Each structure stands twice: as C-alpha cells, then as structure tokens.
Amino acid sequence: MQKFSFWVAAAALSMGVSMAASGPALAHHSGAAYDHSKQNTVQGEVKEWRWSNPHAWLQIYVPGKQGQKQLWSFEATSPNILLKQGFTRTGMRPGDKVEVTFYPLGDGGPGGSLIRVAKDDGTVMGPPPKKAAK
Amino acid sequence: MLRSSKRMAVRSAASAARDEGRTSLSYVHATAAAIILAMACMLFAGAGHAQGFKGIWDNPDGHLGSLAPENLAMDHGKAPINLTGTWMIFGEWQFLPMPKLKPAAQKLYDQATKAAKEGKAFNDTTGHCWPPGLPIMMTRVWPIQVIQLNTAIVMISNFEDQIRWVFMDGRKHTDPNIYVPSYNGESIGHWEGNTLVIDTMNIETRKHFIDRSVPISDKFHVVERITLKDHGNVLSDEFHMTDPENWEGEWVSTKTYRRQTKVDFLEVHCLPDLDQGIPATFDKYSASPDDTK
Fold this sequence. Notes:
The structure holds two protein chains of two kinds. Chain A is α+β, with helices and mostly antiparallel strands.
C-alpha cells in the first residue's frame, strides 16, 4: 500500500512538475514562478489550510528575524491527488506547528509549490523524499 | 390652529384644482394610464411565469431543443460507436507540432516564452478564472465525461465544469450575427464511418488563447475527428484548427484519452479567492498583470 501510494504520488508530482516547467501548471495556471530544481524547507504555524478544487493551498506564519510574523503561501495540487499522498481536509488546523518542504519561488519570495508537510506530532503528509524510493 | 391650517390647505388645494382643472384632469388620466400599464405588465409577467416564460429562451432559429422528447424520438441515424464514458488525457497535452504563426501571434508566443524563462506568467488568463475554451478545455489535466444521445453528444471537463454540446440532430450553424460567441463555440457533429466529425465555430475570442499565448480571431474554426481505439478504451481526438489571421494552414494535433471506470465528478469552481494562496498567480509573477481585467 505504501509502495502504491508512493508511485501514485510520484506520478502525479512528476506530471505537475513537467507541466509547470513547460506551461500551465496542473491545468489551472502558469507555474513559471517556481524553481523546480530546488527544494527548500521552512517552519511555521498554520494560518489556513484551504482544501478546495482545483487547488488546495496552505498559508503559514513564519517567525521573522526581528520577531515579526511573515505570511508564506504554498499552492498544492488538487485534493484527489493530495489524498493519495496522505493529506486530508482536517490534517492541518490553524495554529499547528509545521515544517513545509516546497519548490521555492524563483525570486526567493515567501512561498512556493507544496511538496510535503511534517507536523510537530510526527505526522508527515506528502510524497517521501526521492532517496527513500531507492 | 393645526385644524385651521389643514382646512386652509384643503380649500387651497380644491381651489387650485378648480383653477387648473384641465391640468388636474391630465394628472388623473396619466396616473390611471400608469396604473393600467403597470397592471398589464404584471399580468403579462404573471402569465409568462405561469407558462415558464414560454418562448423567450427558444433557440434563435426555432430549432427543437436537443432534449425535447419529440427530437429524441426522431430518427437521426444509428451511431456507429458509443463515446459515453469518463476519459482522462494521457501523453502530450500541448497542441504540437506548432504551425507557422503570423507575426502578431508569433510576437505573443515569443513574449510568453521569454516570460516563462524569467519565471513569470504571460496571458495566464485561465489562472485568473477566464474560461479555457476550445481547444484547451479538452487538455486540462482533469477527466472529461462524454454523454452520447442521438440528438447531441455532451462533453464536460471536470476542470471548472466546462461543458460543450455537440449537436447531432442535423441542425446547421447559427448565423454568427445572432449567435452569442462562446468559449467552447458552437459544435455540430456527424458520423463518417466510425468517426465522429465535429465542426466548431462562433467562438469567443476575448482572453482566449491556445497553450503558450497563441490568440484566436473570429475566423477560428475547429474540425475534430474522434475515434475509439484499443477495444473502446482509448478515445482519439484529432484536431484540425484554422485561423488565417493567426497561423498558416491547418494546425493539426491529436490528443488521446483513456477510459476511466472509477471516476465521478467533483465540484470545481474558480472562486474569487482561489488565488489567495497561490503565489504563482500573484501580479508580481506575471509579465501581463492585466490578466484579470
């Protein structure tokens, strides 16, 4: 089951990446703003996890250097694919502490394209890192 | 004091009415006419409502609706294949190979290519909830449902529930002067052997692009040749697109779809706040920030 989920996730993800690289990402909009050659992580507190079609998205508050909060936005794919990656509608709630792995914006802006979320209770949602597939 | 004032006012009004009898009479007539007119309108509206506003939504050319029982009961010829099913695109989703674009279209294509290299969107209208329209409504990476009747074949893309009706009841294209252009156009189909041939025109051009910002004009015309393969499990849609204002000759590309047996549709809307959490759609990542206008 784990293996199946991974391959479904990997296929879905690669589809999204290839589309994003060459044109409209996941059929809704351009994904040109994301740099799919890199993966970054950032930690913060969930503001909103929008579970909707055609995209879900996540916004978190990230503590800044001077203590102020900065809002980061991450687009996710559609819930039908997210479900197969372990995400659920109630998997994240406002206030949850999370570490987000994502494809960053090319200009380093606060946000990106969501890959994986690890919660401080040990829950991990999203496809496993590529090296785990070997 | 107050009563006295009222009496004076009444007397004054009566006096004024006598002095301006003809004018008052005109007011009475005008008021009566207005009341009668309003009542007539209400009666008319009520009658219209009671009859389902009969006639006001009729097809402009008076053609029978594709779901009218008498139309469904007619013999429109036996369909050689049944396309009913849920289909998911696979393989190349872009309309390749590209045709030779006319200079203005080439300029837009080049601008979009340059923007993509710079990490920016360009004419990303679908990303801002403009309808994808034909042909790209057929290539969003979402399933497409096809429901085949003898009078029409209905195609619904689950991406924002875009719908197109392919009329199979022998009707002709509507006069472009009275048809309201639509993003998926007006599609008329017929069978040639085992191939469904669809002719589409009357297509809305505003904010309507193909793949990388190739625009369309009101001369845009699409002919599709649809067949089933692999024992009915693969649907092939061969697009032949012409638009003499934007490219030379026919733009030909075939899209393929695999039958899905465990897929029902989800509700998908492009809501006004959808892009709130989608950074790629923010203005700062667009080389054409008027996409929403």
